[in-house]
Amino acid sequence: MHPNSHAADSRRWKALVFISIAQLMVMLDSAVMNIALPSAQQALHFSDGSRQWVVTVYGLAFGGLLLVGGRIGDMVGRKRVFLLALVGFAFASALGGVAVNATMLLTARALQGVFAALLAPAALSLISLAFTEPKERAKAFGVFSAVSVGGGAVGLLTGGLLTQYLSWRWSMFVLVPVAVIGILGAIPNVHDTAERHRSRLDIPGVLLASLGLVAVVYGFGNAESQGWTASLTIGSFVTGVVLLAAFVLVQARVKAPLLPLRVLTERNRAAAYVSVALAVVSMFGMFLLLSYYFQEVKGYSPVMAGLAFMPLAIPQAVGATQIGARLAARIAPRPIMVGGYLVTGIGVALLALLDVDSSFLQIAVAEAVVGLGIGTAFMPAMSIATHGVEAKDAGVASAMISSSQQVGGSIGTALLNTIATSSAAGYLASHTGQARLQSHALVHGYSVAYWLAVGFLAAAALVSAIAVNAGAPKHAPVPAGESVEESIPVAVH
Questions:
Q1: What pTM was estimated for this model as a whole?
Q2: Which InterPro entries does its entry note (predicted)?
Q3: CA dist 75 to 19, 112, 199, 396, 462, Å?
């Protein structure tokens, strides 16, 4: 091997390390807040109705702007955008750490979402550009996906340790040094080898997509405080649907669309986007409610709550990297996705059956079933998200699957929190004089929300069963033009 090529080779693997550190930061951010939220809520005195916005506003900014983030990276250079996003993320995290009220914390979370939307597509593109040989590429994405899956588990535990022994604020501050390490390592090691595409940004598309998504999720959040039939709730839903319909019409007509509609019209890709969004509705909501169950009903400390998520996080990694990946190499994606979603549904149904006095063994079994199921299902779902896509659309297709996750998560957090809160209030009104009434009411609310989550997972399985028709993989090397972003399992938090 030529000395120069050897140096370039080692630099690529160093680049992968620092790109993975950036991915770890995004995963940590999603997870630590779930554990820190009850403490933050107490410290900053915001209501149960507004608590979900701390999680939702991050996912909404992230999901709503992912397509824009990918496009900006193509236009001004991925390394430049990657570094800018890391600097911005560090600033937003510091702002969240010093928040003095709910508004300041929400602003910081929204900014984190904006910079994460710039970071995620740039990171995927940079790995794709650095690793062009199929076997190396698969190995590189394997490392990246392991960080994605493991980052969530690390985040839950880190969030617990920091919240308990320092303060919930450190769940924000901890992201600053991680970002700094990423910046210092990326400057000399990360290189953007692809040309930029000097097309114009589809501003009408950006505005219509972002505002439409904000309106829909705001409707779900508003339903908690105002009710489902309130004029503001219905108005938000109607506005959102109209704006998103207008977005589709604009995309069909503009010269350089933000989202070329050909990306959505292939049945396997469409099924991946829809089924992942439906599944994530239940998963994000479940994480939030389970965090509150551990801390408010069972009385766990933040560290214990973080540890209590391990029976879910570890099987999720096993499901993605062992079961899903091995099956996906041998058989068609449909049975893996349908089976995985149904198993996840069984796990969530077991959570719905928990009561105030349930043992940790019961909780752990339910969590393990959920983790194995969703890890297994998401592996082929991520793979067919770029099924048959043209090379020039691979970035948009990858951003779409991330958007499905983030938007599904935003809706899930708002919807399931709304259902849980209103069901608990109804229970309190109709049951008086019962011992530990507050705890029983909370658990009743969680149970109603979990049954709704089971319905969403059944819908994800149904969509997969009807629409997915991709065949079993051919045992041949991946062609150079094909995208290996396909094989990324993504952790859900």
A1: 0.78
A2: EmrB-like, MFS, MFS_dom, MFS_trans_sf
A3: 20, 22, 7, 13, 38
